[in-house]
Specification:
The protein is 42% helix and 19% strand. By secondary structure, the chain is an alpha/beta fold. The chain folds into 2 domains: 69 residues, no CATH class; 148 residues, Rossmann fold. The chain has a 5-stranded parallel β-sheet with strand order 7-6-5-8-9, with helices on both faces. β5, α3 and β6 form a beta-alpha-beta unit. α3 crosses α8.
Amino acid sequence: MDPKSLKEINEARRARRAVILVTDLTDGSDRVVRENDRVSGGLAEPVAKAFRSGKSGTVESDGRKHFLNVHLPPPRLVVIGAVHISQALAPMARIAGYDIEIIDPRTAFATPDRFPDVPLHADWPETVLKDRPFDPYTAVAAVTHDPKIDDIPLKAALDAGCFYVGALGSRKTHGKRVERLMAMGLAREAIERIQAPIGLDIGAASPAEIAVAVLAQVIAAFRSRGLAEEEKSRAA
């Protein structure tokens, strides 16, 4: 591997950014492709698929074989609210391979007894985010029903380009949320990225069922990253 490529990969890992090391198996040359880089020719589609799947492998393009070595940051799920849904969601998310953490300033809810072995921040989200900012490989689920707790991290998630942003509440509740977020300076187009009501529509009723619906929606969002941009490019 070219030392320059190794340096780029290490820098991307520290910054939680996705890259692929593309090695030409014919001559051994390699280069690093970042997730939003434009890739021309026959490699464009295999590279896009590799970023979505996270799987490395050999592909053939334009008569040459390449090995795509994929380096994705571990996906992170941050739940705003130490509620019953969060208690069910935490173990499910870990089984699915997500790093999960809970943020809730209400110390009566955010306790190790209720969330054993889960990174727990019993503090206001804006305080936690100073040291642990969101990024494109973070999913954010706001489930407190309290604007004082939910609104700031929702705005932060949209500003950071989180791959998933969801919020608990009825359509009426969300309508008021939209007004508050617009007053905070967010454009309506950005706010439309929020999944609200949160979770896939599977008729979920109990906290555990809602947790299943949320996790399914998070996984779907993670695996479909970049598809909209690909479709636009093909249509152009």
